[in-house]
Amino acid sequence: MNKISIIGLGYVGLPLAVEFGKKYRTVGFDIKKDRIAFLKKGLDKTKELTKKEIKSSKKLYLTSDSNDIKDSNIYIVTVPTPVDLNNKPDLSLIKKATSLISKSLKQDDIVIYESTVYPGTTEEVCVPLLEKGSKLKYLENFTCGYSPERINPGDKKHMLQNVTKLISASNKLTLNKIHEIYSKVLKNKLFKVNSIKIAEAAKVIENAQRDINIAFVNELSIIFEKLDLDTTEVLNAASTKWNFNRFTPGLVGGHCIGVDPYYLAYKSEKLGYSPKVILSGRDTNNSMSSFCVDKLLKKMKKKKIKLKESNVLILGCSFKENCSDVRNSKVFEIISKLKQKKIKVDVFDPVVDRDECKNIYNIQLKKTIQNKFYDAILISVSHNVFKSLGIDKIRKYGKTNCVVFDLKSIFNIKKSDIRL
């Protein structure tokens, strides 16, 4: 009988562990003891799963004790794979998870990776660590698989149970085994991929493609600023053509789109080719916080607002809409740049984790907002709560001469002063 261990209980690991725990004996392991303590109470700080959903997983055992994974025969790794300060892949967490598993690895066990990596990572980086720690031989004693995650935080439409899931493995026998265990817990379509490296490549280009497309419209917004054109209106017009693919300009942060292209670029450079389009797209998207600040300050000056000691309200600081995660959010770059200009900045976001915001960025979020107080308001994240609030109510937070910057183009152009 299968016993499955999920290593890492973040956005990816927790939903997977809950689903597997409905059918199989499943161990949900995370090194963060406070995370386990909250989850045992049915509390998910990421707000992706409800208490009822977590408690519905009757065969799931949550733990931070590595001894609890030892008698498993299927191991699934779902730990983060960020980049370092030089935008190089940081594989420290996936290496630690792999070394942890290696101490429990036995004959015929399968290790499946879901973390985003560059092509070749599973077999070139992880397999040697598994062999070293277990004293077992790859393909002879154990095998591996790769099934890239497609979790989209805050998205209640494209969820684990209704998106196509890629699966790949060391050999056909293992691939069939992975298909068997995943198909029993997931209702969605499983797509078999011919090799682990192909599946790794497929995953990493998904986000690289999106990054490049956003970079294109971000560059358009810079050009149209100089032409005094509204980007949204231009996109509306272009979208009337049947084969125009519409993307919208904005900040690109988080731990997927803003990270994964660097993984592919790193591997490419190791092979002797420096990718131009991928890295150019990254440079463009990384420049957008400065562009947004310049655009806001330009409008404030035009309205004769004195920048020094002015008050600016930022609505939203997570890396994307309806998501509580603030890691790698580019909104904090905007906050920092405004403060450098001696501008007073208040941040309001009822969706994010206040403690995480304080611990990571030393920003104390406002609990309430004062009416008729701000010289400028920047709507930086398109949370549903801000959409339902409406532009007229948002305007009431500002002074008569207030500049409203609708960065995400949520509202009608006539209702805001500027937008990307």
How is the secondary structure organized here?
Blueprint: E1 3-7, H1 13-20, E2 25-29, H2 33-40, H3 51-55, E3 60-63, E4 74-77, H4 92-102, E5 110-113, H5 121-134, E6 143-146, E7 165-169, H6 172-183, E8 190-192, H7 196-226, H8 231-238, H9 260-270, H10 276-286, H11 288-302, E9 311-315, H12 331-340, E10 344-348, H13 354-361, E11 374-379, H14 384-389, H15 391-395, E12 398-406, E13 418-419
Parallel strand pairs: 1-2, 1-4, 2-3, 4-5, 5-6, 7-8, 9-10, 9-11, 11-12, 12-13
Antiparallel strand pairs: 6-7
Helix pairs in contact: 4-5, 7-9, 7-10, 11-12
Give your account of this protein's structure.
By secondary structure, this protein is an alpha/beta fold. Helix content is 39%, strand content 15%. The protein is built from 15 helices and 13 strands. It has an 8-stranded mixed β-sheet, with helices on both faces. Strands 10-9-11-12-13 form a 5-stranded parallel β-sheet, with helices on one face. The longest helix is centred in the middle third of the chain and has 31 residues, at 196-226. The protein is globular and about 75 Å long. The model has no long low-confidence stretch (mean pLDDT 94).
